[in-house]
Amino acid sequence: MIVVAALACLAAYVAVAGPAALAFGLLSQAIVAAPGIFILRAIAPAQGWLPIAAFGPLVGQALGCLVMTLLWVAGGRGPWLIIAAPLIVAGLIPLARRLEGRWTLPAIEKGDAMAIGLLIVLTMLVVGWPFAHVGDITGAGQSYRAYFTADYVWRRAVVIELAKGAPLPVNPYFTGDVLHYYWMPHVLNGVQYRFAGAWASLDELLLIQSITIDVYFVTFLYGMVRLFRVKPWAAASGVAFVILSTSFEGLYVLFDFSSKDVPISAVRDLNIDAISRWYFQGIPIDGLQRLLFYQPHHIVGYCIGLIGLIALAVRSRAVDPAAFFVSGVCLGLSIAISSFAGLMVTSGAMLYELAGVVRTMDWMRGIKHAVAAAIPLLAAVGIVFWLGYVDRSGSVVEVVVNRVAVHRFWWVTLLSFGPVLIVTALAIPALISERRGLSVLGALAVTSIVFYFFVDVRDHQHVYVGWRVGHFLFMSSAVVIGVLLERVHARPSAWQPLQWAAITIALLAGLPTTIIDIYNTQDISEHGEAPYFTLILRPDELQAFDWIENNTRPDALFQVDPIIRAADGWAYLPAFAERRMAIGLPISMVPLAKYEKGSEAINLIFDESPLAAYERAARAKVNYVLIGPPERKAHPGVEERFSSIANLMPLAWKNGTISIYEVK
After folding, report:
1. pLDDT attached to residue 400
2. What is the mean pLDDT of residues 65-91?
3. How far apart are CA 286 and CA 472, in angstroms?
4. Closest by Cα among 150, 102, 145, 109 to 127
5. Which domain holds residue 370?
6. Using omega within 30 degrees of 0 as the cis cutoff, is the peptide bond preceding 94 cis?
7. Domain count across the chain
8. What pTM does this model have?
C-alpha cells in the first residue's frame, strides 16, 4: 500500500509541475522537513517509525519556517537559506536526545503502514483533480476557481512580495506600509520563487508544497489518533470520516433542489460548504477537505500547536518544566505561523493545565510549568510584533457575543457539523468510561466553543472564527470517532447493528457535500459574472501582465479601481501582475478602515477632472494606472480624460481591452 500511496502522490505531483520545478520543489521540502524527523528520532528512539513519520516533518517545517524567517529579516537571500535554516535546526538534535522518555508515544502495530498508505491515497483522490486544474490555460484564458481560492490567491500575492526581497515584506495594498499578516509560513516559497522564477512557475511551487503538506497532515492526524491508544484500523477510519463527511449541507441542497424541481447541475453554482451562511445567515464551517485544498500554512500552524497541546497530555512525568518549555515552543510556533489558531490552541493548553493544577491542588507545579511555557510564548508574541503582523491602526479582535454565531444556532450547527455530531454523540459512553487522556481534547473543544460565541475578528463579516473552530473540532473528532469505532467493534451487543447503521448513515449523508465540493473546486468553466465562481485572466490581461513584467520596475505602483474590483479582483495586480497597488481593498487584511478610506479617495482619479486626477495620482506616488473592462464600464470617458493630458499621463501600452497610462 505504501507503494500505491507513493504512486498516487507522484501522479498528483506530475499533474501540477514540470520536471525541473518538481525536482527543486520536492528537494526543498525534504531538506526543510529532515531535521524534524531526526529530532523526533532523538526523542523517541525506541518507538519505531510511527511518531517520527507523524510528527517529525511538521516539526521540521515549523522550526525551519522560524529560522528561515530570522535569517531573511537579518538580510539573508538566495537558495542557500534552504540549506542553512535546516542545518541550524539540526543543532537541536543533541538537546532533543536529553528529552528521551518524557512522553508516551505510540509504538508501531501491524497495520500502521497500510492505514497511512490508504489515507494518503484518499487525500490524493480529494486534492489531485482540483490541483491539476489550478491556473489551466483554456480558450478563455488562464482560469482559477474563485470562490474557494481566496487563500490561494493571497498566497500568490504574499510569496511574490517576499520574493522581491525587502527585509519586512511591503504591503502591496497600502503605500508606505509593511505587510500586516502572518507571512512566516510563506518564506520558503518566497526563497524558492526568488531563485527559480525563470524555470518554475509560482503555481508549480505552491502546489508542490500543498501536496507535500497534505501528506504530512493526514499522517499527523493518524499519529495523533494513535497517541490515544486507538487501533490502526479504527484510527484510519476516524481520520477518513472527518476528511470525507463533516457536513449535511450538500444533502440539504439536493433535497431542496429536488423539492423545487431545480436541476441537480445547479449545485455547480454554489459554495456548497457555506450553505449555512448563504441560506441561513449563520457562521460557515469549512470541512477539512478545504483545508487540504489551499491552506498549507494553516495546516502547519494547527499541527504544531496540537503537538504542543497533546505533549501536555502524554508526558510521562506529572511535574516536568522541560516538557512545558517544549510545549511552549510548539505553541509559540503556532502563534507565529497561524496567529489566531495559535491563540486558540494555546488557550486550550492553559485550560487543560489549570484544570490539572486545581484537581491536584499542586500550585507549585502550576507556577513551574507556567514559567517554563511562558518563556517561548512571550518570545513568540515578541516575534509577531517585530515582524509587523499587527496593524495598530485599529483593533483586530473583539470580545463580544457574536450575533451571527447564535443566529439559528441549532439548525446551522446541524447542517455544518451534522455527521460528526451524530457519531460523537454515540461516543459519549466511551468517553465517560474509557481513560485515554481525552480531556486534553475536551479542553480544546471548550476553548473553541468559547471563541465561537464570544470572540470575533473584525472586518470578516463575523465568520472568521468559525473556520478555525470547525477545523480544530473536526481534527479532534477523528480521535473520538476512532475510540467509538474500536469500542463498537470490541463490545458486541443488541445495540451493535443499530450503532453501525447510525455511523454508516451519518457517513453517507455527509458525503454529498465533499463530493460536490471536490467537483466544484476543479470546475474552471465559466459561471457568469458572479464573483464566487471562476476567475479568468483573459488573453489580453495575460499580454498586459507580460508587458508589465518586462517593462516596469518590480517596486512600481499600479492602480486600478479598488472598489469595483473588490469582490473578485482585489488581488488582481499583486497576485498576477506581480506589482503593488497604491491603495487596494484586500479581504485578508484587518482592520479594513484605512484601506476603505484610501480606496474611496484614490478612486476619484477615474472620475474627476484630468488635472485633478493627475495630481491625486502623483500625490499617491502612483506610477501607472491600468484601465480594463471594469474601469471602462464603471467610469465612462476615463480614457478620453487621461488622453487629454498626454504630457502628464501618456499612454504607455494598449491592446484590445487593456490600457496602461504612466503617471509622469
Report:
1. 87
2. 95
3. 11
4. 145
5. 2-522
6. no
7. 2
8. 0.94
